[in-house]
Specification:
sensory transduction; mainly alpha; odorant binding; olfaction
Amino acid sequence: MEHPEERYYKLNRFYLSVTGLWPYQSTWRARFSRTIITIIMLSCLFTQISSIFTSDVDLDFLSDSLIMIMPTVGNLTHLYSRLVNIDKFKELYELMWDDWALEKTDDEIKIMHQYAETARVATIYCSVTIYTIIIGYIVWLFIPVVFGIIRPVNESLLQSAIHVEFYIDVEQYIYIVLFYLSIVIILIPLVFLASMSLYLTVTHHVCGMCELLGNRAEHLFYVIKDETERDLIRGTKISCKNIVFFVQQHSNIIRFVNLIETSHTLPFLMDLIGMVTSISFSLLKLSFGTRIENRSAIFVSITLIIIDMIYLILPNYMGQKITDMSSILCEKVYNSAWYNADVSQQKSLLLIMCRRFYPLVLTACKFYPMSLPSFKMIFQMAVTYFMFMRKI
């Protein structure tokens, strides 16, 4: 599969391929990638749970463990909740390629490229932000061991706030343990970035197509001039072809958004539950981490809150943008000279204008609309749960 516009989606393709979610890769490679990730995550989950049964558990220890268990569990649920929709991902890409192949004016081509570039840049910024934090944390883990600042050596592992039990002499195999933990820490964001980059790609494509059709709506009847009867008839015939194409493309946008909804609705709900829980426990840990020896746990908690906020605000922002762009499209149709068209053509356009009262909305199982007001509500919910747990 090679398309001229694929350069905008190379990073998205990389993330999906590494995690085994790229719909065009071979079955063997996809299964191999998913198997490696699953084995590493399950082994990490086993060591994390084992530490609870082999350590002196108090509230501080338990909060540390839960904070780090949730990303591990979330990684696996994230991977397999997307896996069941991989055929829908392929259909989304096929529809995207069809839209790119449409005959467009120079201005419309610029619109398509602008939104594709915005999605690419947003993915790069998210990747750089997350992995800058991740790499900095890994370097911080190795510094005490390499320079022998802390003795005994295995205490540096305890400072990582990742409570694990390997049933081996950690001091003797400290480099192997830290190398393993580094792999886990690097792999965890990969699945999240894969799904996030896919979501950014398809939602920006929807916004681009809405603006493209809005641009066409403004020029839909520019041929019609009230000069002579002959000119009016000729103009109406030309606009009829444009209207048919316009209505078809609007229908394709609705289909595209519905496909995004069906492929993301359940994963969205699972993500929201996980993010609210993660933010609540991270805030709880911050309220406990007042002693200097808990500085690592404080760093981990702040990092998780930042990543959770990024992952929460992007889907909500793009959901809000799709709703706004679909409404703007209908307004542009209304502001066009649609009243100059034939009655049969007006009926088709009226259907589009009526969509103004039912804008396109992405939801999490119809329970939670993806929008900026909903993001505020979710964050307030996380803070409320944190305050409740703190009083217990």
